[in-house]
Amino acid sequence: MKHDVIDAQISPDGRLEVLSRQEVGKLLDSSQGGLYQTFRNCALAVLNCGSAMDDGKELLERYPDFEIRVVQEQRGIKLRLKNAPAQAFVDGVMIKGINEHLFAVVRDIIYADNEINHNPHFELETSSGISNAVFHILRNANILRPMTNPKLVVCWGGHSISRKEYDYSKLVGHELGLRGLDICTGCGPGAMKGPMKGATIGHAKQRIKNGQYLGITEPGIIAAESPNPIVNDLVILPDIEKRLEAFVRTGHGVVVFPGGAGTAEEILYILGILLHPDNKDMPFPLIFSGPDSAKAYFEQIDNFISATLGSEAQRRYQIIIDDPGQVAREMQAGISQVRAFRKHHGDAYYFNWQLKIDPVFQEPFNPTHVNMKTLALHKDQDKHLLAANLRRAFSGIVTGNVKDSGIRAIEQYGHFEIHGDSHIMTLMDTLLASFVAQHRMKLPGKKYSPCYRIIA
Length: 456
Known about the structure:
The protein is of the alpha/beta class. It has helices spanning about 20-30, 35-45, 55-60, 95-115, 125-140, 165-180, 195-205, 220, 240-250, 260-275, 295-310, 310-315, 325-345, 370-375, 385-400, 405-415, 420-435; strands spanning about 5-10, 65-75, 75-85, 90, 95, 150-155, 180-185, 215, 235, 255, 285-290, 320, 415-420, 450-455.
């Protein structure tokens, strides 16, 4: 099937216009070297905004002739696009938000490679070094807002959700926006787009003109979850672990909407961190919420957490069904506690330095067939370590479901095998089967073939 494409040359709107010659030269070298493929794939994902697609491999195969080149000029840089998706343009002119996102790709991919990966200043084998790198990437992206009271709500949830769940996420976003709260999501469609859309209306009613709609992504997932057009701050972290850390260090509270394996991964990540003894007294509002039709979904999640991580984990969140106003009120009250806590301890409002994140949550996990098969999924370990390993299992399933590298690995070597205690495997199998039955693994209308096999 042929897809409409367009050739264009575009200029940045803002910071990249004032790069030095040396910086432009570095950018030119990097984009033509080994980084080019990552740069190209992320750029293509941004240009694919609004498309009903959640398959990284399919996207790359749909536009095989797409090219992007950095053009060096005296004043800075331009980007030359060839065979780019036509939907990113209106009457031959690129949509402004997509233009911003495209140059955010340039900024973050190049910065991470030049300034983080090859810089001895960042000790990426240490926990503090990784957190420092996350901070610098966010600061370079200019998304940290000092001298501002805490008000950033992270909203997690699936890209493949029902219309009723999507509309509910918009209602929650609207209530949050009416209270002057900003939104941060994984920047894709579904439960990532809904809260932002609702908040824009809430902010408009309150005449808030500087609302932040922060999207945090990483190169592996961006093709399956192209940034939605409401995102006005986009930042691309190098991997899923740094992306998750960026969420919990910049956000002041989290609302979780219904979702699939990726949402389960996020829930296990935040609970695993909050279960660390050093975080025992730290306020961190965490709310699971959905419409009345999602009640059974959250009961399944709650039962899974109870049976694996125990009552201590359950005490760290509350479940609110079909009450957007209550979600916003509880979040606002929780963020007030966060502000008081940070003020008392002298911690920054814009980056949670005090949050203890165990290295097991920071080390990049490569979900190969061998690594998935050898995960430690048994109860004879600390709860936060079990959460970390369960998080990795769900992360691997996300990779096999939607990421280009994972889809190709499944095609070549077959299912991921996931082994563990029979009790945990039974719980996991039941939960995943419910995600499949409720069409939470892939967008509606697409047949889902599991990329995994649970083995007790």
